[in-house]
Amino acid sequence: MTFDQVLPELDSDLLPKAMDRATSLGASYADVRLEATFSEYTEAENGDIKRLDVATGTSLGVRALAGGAWGFASSDVPEPRGLRSRLMAATERAVRHARATARFGPVELAPVRPVVKDVPLRVKREPWSAEGKKDLAASVTKDMMSVDGMGLALVELGHTLFDWHLATTEGARISRRWLLTDGSFQVHAVGPKGAQTWWRPFGAAGGLELLRGERDVAAIGLDLARRAVALTREAETPPSGRTTVVTTPEFDQLLVHEVMGHPSEGDRVLGGESAWAGRAWWSDKVGERVGSDLVTAVSDARPIERHKGGYGTFPYDDEGVPARRVVNVERGMLKEFLHSRQTAAVVGVPPNGAMRAMTATDVPIIRMTNTYFEHDPTGPSTLEECIEDVHDGVILGESSIPSIDSIRLRFQINAYEGWRVRDGEVVGLLKNLALLGSTPDFFRTIRLVGNERTWKLMPLPNCGKGDPMQIARVGNGGPVMVGEGMVMGVA
Questions:
Q1: pTM for the model
Q2: Which residue of 53, 115, 150, 332 is surrounded by the most CB atoms within 10 Å?
Q3: Are 38 and 6 in contact (CB under 8 A)?
């Protein structure tokens, strides 16, 4: 696949020249990101095509340190021939903005070795064509509507190509080309026990070769339709009470995201970001126990086989820092936070590759990556083995809606579905249930964690953070885990 087919040719040799200009204007440090995208998405509802969107865009953003403070300027680039003028104008504005805010105190950056790297696009199967998208979307939603009880089957699917470049005054120069193949389902079913709506994203960072097995679009659609209908016919809402709780990877996804990932972000830890429940209750508790010995949570963006297709997988962040494995909680003890170069300098640790922006026109902020609970190598291999010793409990299935307090200490994570367990056996289907608790209280009860075969990493495309809001794609998940907690039914 060649980017020349759909993306404008970007003169990335202009970026070092802009960095030279920033230095000549008095910047002690500057970086520039340049990005071009092409996206094509289609949407079908109940077998009919509703829309086909095609969009292209080129944008850039420049950060500059001058007088010890940050300045930032960005611009869209409607035509490639206008890149030079817009790039130089943004560079000059960024330096001027930095000088205007210098009175607020000096900013220091942790040192990094400048990287010069070209990361090419490698996919085995190219995205669907426009006609292929329409045919698949219409076919999948038509098949879903054949399930008795379905009232709505909606799917969006498509792909986005990215051509991304970074240059810094320190000499870093990175180019990366990558592909996102993704979409989402929304279903609505009606039955004798009420109505059920379900939304689920799917996708992978890569080509169509990754959308197979549990990521296969047709299989996801039919399975989701059948499960939603079952909730309207067979499921009960659980009574409220403390019980044995079994979390699945599908529930771990939102649990680890909300109460491990976000409060591990260094800007929140240091109090520099507080929008959208943006503080962290454990800011001063590194080295203290926050869970049982079986609880380990990591944020790992490295492009390794285990993370293949993961939304939080990348080789370098938006500051040019290489991706690495960050151990947030190790055997129940709080260990590491996610850092930018700036927050790393404040704390006195190396930066760990957590800075990302929604687009080049947005300021990079600290974001979780592939953040997940680790498995126990000695744990059981299946869900059935994990519940063998559960006398009376609840399995929490796919998560739906979170609610957390302002410091991410107390949480409520809802699930579309669950199952009642008695004497090691599944005895009933549950719907619209929630786990409530506080982070340390719940995680200290974890007494069993499944092995690698129970572990999954899943895509979450709509992680919101910042003000103005930025949406990021991250990977979340984990293994099957068993503990004790408060479960309640929700409307």
A1: 0.96
A2: 150
A3: yes
Q: Which residues fall within 8 angstroms of residue 340, CB to CB, at 6 or more apart?
A: 266, 267, 319, 351, 354, 355, 364, 365, 366
For residue 2, give the DSSP letter: -
CATH value at residue 124: 3.30.2290.10
Burial 20-56 (b: 16+ CB within 10 A, else e): ebbeebebbbbbbbbbbbbbbbbbbbebeeeebeeee
Please list the residues that pair with 8 across neighbouring strands: none
Kindly state whether residues 195 and 312 are assigned to the same domain.
Answer: no
What does the pLDDT look like over 211-252, one tens digit per residue? 999 899 999 999 999 999 999 999 999 999 999 999 999 999
Whether 203 and 326 map to the same domain: the answer is: no
* Domain housing 210: 3-233
**Residues 196 and 231: beta-carbon distance below 8 Å:** yes
Helices and strands (H, E) in the chain, number of each type: 9, 22
Beta bridge partners of 482: 246, 448
Element (H, E) at 44: strand 29-45
Q: Residues 302-307: contacts with CB within 8 Å, 24+ apart? A: 306/457, 307/370, 307/457, 307/475
Residues 268 and 153 occupy one common structural domain: no
Q: Integer distance in angstroms from the first to the last C-alpha of the chain?
A: 48
